[in-house]
Amino acid sequence: MSSMNRRSFIAKTSLGAGAVLGLPALPSLAAPKKDKWQCIHNTNTMQTIISLTGLHTPVTVLQIADTHISCDNESDREYEQYSARMNTAFLRPKHYKTGEPTTTMACFKDMMQMAKQEKVDLVALVGDIVNYPSATAVEFVRSTVEAAGIPHIYTAGNHDWHYEGMQGSSDELRRNWCEKRLKPLYAGKHMFYSSDIIGGINMVTIDNSTYQVNEEQLSFFHDQIKRPEPVALFVHIPLYMQSMRMCCGHPEWGAGSDKNYEIERRERWPAAGNQASTVAFVKEVMTAKKLTGVFAGHWHQYYSISQCQVNQHLALPGFNGQYRMIRFQPFV
Q: For the whole prediction, is pTM greater than 0.70?
């Protein structure tokens, strides 16, 4: 075979059988596509490590949910008819580590001390921090967090603003008590949504404590995911993913599935079900390009789930000293 013929034969056979037969190249032979942005989760009951592309230095967040603090004094007495049931809840929980009786206030102080020792970059208070909008409980939380000297974010839970049996819709009562009592916990930020850039990560809160997200909140979140920074989303009530029980955006949410409205003495969820903005919000979260994760509470249990490449982690309850430590680290 001449040298020219050899070159021709090699050129043809090196294309592979598909090319010789006029078929497309096999996918396994094609060069793999490299994802420009990587987000890898490694999680357990109380710690989540997230490796991120583009992160230059580690960022640590202490997530606290469901501390359910009550510490009423004389100034709260006028609301006793609305606070009686929840005031007796979680009075003497057993500490998760020692098994010994403790108090919600002692556990909260211990977590703030741990935050200082760990030198966390942010404390994320993710709802049901107080049992109801008691002035003394809110002041205790505010002063304890402020004394730690660490930046914090806060979003309300369904108990934070709720006085059981008080007349009014959930939206009206939430707006009233968030403004009247919970406002010091927001540190000057918007009550129903916020954004803080910490170490190059956009820490976003959305208040979904009524199980719903309104159009204004949806628009805010849409603006955040268009920004260049990766987003960490903090909510109180978990967002619906396949197989999950009742949560924000669940397709069966509504009057027929509301089991607790009588004991909690509140308005029943509407028969019409979810608002269109809530459904759109959950969909937007599930398709967000640079979402590092969703961090929630409410269920008082450890739960981690993934759908559409979105990871969601629920924190264990803080009333007995539990928490979630979220450690963002550069992707190597």
A: yes
Q: With CA atoms as reference, report the closest residue to 204 among 301, 328, 292.
A: 292
Please report, to the nearest 10 degrees, the dihedral formed by the alpha carbons of residues 150, 206, 232, 144 taken in order: 20
Q: Which residues make beta-bridge pairs with 60?
A: 327
From CA 153, how far away is CA 11, in angstroms rounded?
Answer: 63
Q: Angle 8-12-13 (CA atoms, 0-180°, nearest 5)?
A: 120
Residue type, 103: T
CA distance 289 to 301: 28
Judge contact between 40 and 311, C-beta under 8 A: no
pLDDT tens, position by position, 71-109: 999 989 999 999 999 999 999 999 999 999 999 999 999
Within its chain, how far is the Cα of 264 from the centroid?
24
Distance in Å from the first CA to the final CA of the chain? 51
How many angstroms separate the Cα of 243 from the Cα of each of 170, 290, 305? 27, 24, 10
Quote the distance between the C-alpha of residue 9 and its chain's center: 61
